From TrEMBL:
<dbReference type="Pfam" id="PF07743">
    <property type="entry name" value="HSCB_C"/>
</dbReference>
<keyword id="KW-0143">Chaperone</keyword>
<dbReference type="InterPro" id="IPR036386">
    <property type="entry name" value="HscB_C_sf"/>
</dbReference>
<dbReference type="GO" id="GO:0051259">
    <property type="term" value="P:protein complex oligomerization"/>
</dbReference>
<dbReference type="GO" id="GO:0001671">
    <property type="term" value="F:ATPase activator activity"/>
</dbReference>
<protein>
    <submittedName>
        <fullName>HSC20 protein</fullName>
    </submittedName>
</protein>
<dbReference type="InterPro" id="IPR036869">
    <property type="entry name" value="J_dom_sf"/>
</dbReference>
<keyword id="KW-0963">Cytoplasm</keyword>
<dbReference type="InterPro" id="IPR004640">
    <property type="entry name" value="HscB"/>
</dbReference>
<dbReference type="InterPro" id="IPR009073">
    <property type="entry name" value="HscB_oligo_C"/>
</dbReference>
<dbReference type="GO" id="GO:0051087">
    <property type="term" value="F:protein-folding chaperone binding"/>
</dbReference>
<dbReference type="GO" id="GO:0005739">
    <property type="term" value="C:mitochondrion"/>
</dbReference>
<dbReference type="GO" id="GO:0044571">
    <property type="term" value="P:[2Fe-2S] cluster assembly"/>
</dbReference>
<feature type="domain" description="Co-chaperone HscB C-terminal oligomerisation">
    <location>
        <begin position="53"/>
        <end position="124"/>
    </location>
</feature>
<comment type="similarity">
    <text>Belongs to the HscB family.</text>
</comment>
<keyword id="KW-0496">Mitochondrion</keyword>
Length: 130
């Protein structure tokens, strides 16, 4: 009986880990969207894809430059708000694209969401004293 209990424990731990991973994937709009693309057999856009429009890339460059400058709390909050608003806007747009079954549009929007996720990571690193 003790061996069986250990097997049940291991089985339970493995499935708990899988459920946790699935929950985390579905919780985040970017990872959820990438997963939906995968389910539909669509490869996510690669960094090398030149699909991103130049106005968008300029916007990303400007935010990156703002993040590179020495910062005070107010300017960091301003950048944080900008990133959050953009992420919410892109999340709404990608949701609408999936609802229309426009997987190519969803793919492009998810590529843009990745840029903002990277900016968010850079911002978090700025805010946390190293």
């Amino acid at each position: 009986f003790p061996l069986r209990r250990q097997e049940e424990q291991r089985f339970s731990e493995q499935h708990s880990s899988l459920i946790n991973k699935a929950y985390q994937t579905l919780l985040n709009p970017l990872s959820r969207g990438l997963y939906l693309l995968e389910l539909n057999g669509v490869e996510p856009a690669q960094e090398t894809d030149s699909d991103a429009d130049s106005a968008f890339l300029m916007e990303i460059m400007e935010i990156n430059e703002k993040l590179a400058e020495p910062k005070n709390e107010d300017s960091l909050r301003e950048i944080e708000t900008l990133i959050k608003v953009k992420q919410e806007e892109l999340t709404r747009e990608v949701t609408a694209a999936f609802e229309r079954d426009d997987l190519q549009e969803a793919k492009l929007l998810l590529a843009k969401m990745k840029y903002f996720a990277n900016l968010e990571d850079k911002l978090k690193n700025k805010k946390v004293p190293s």
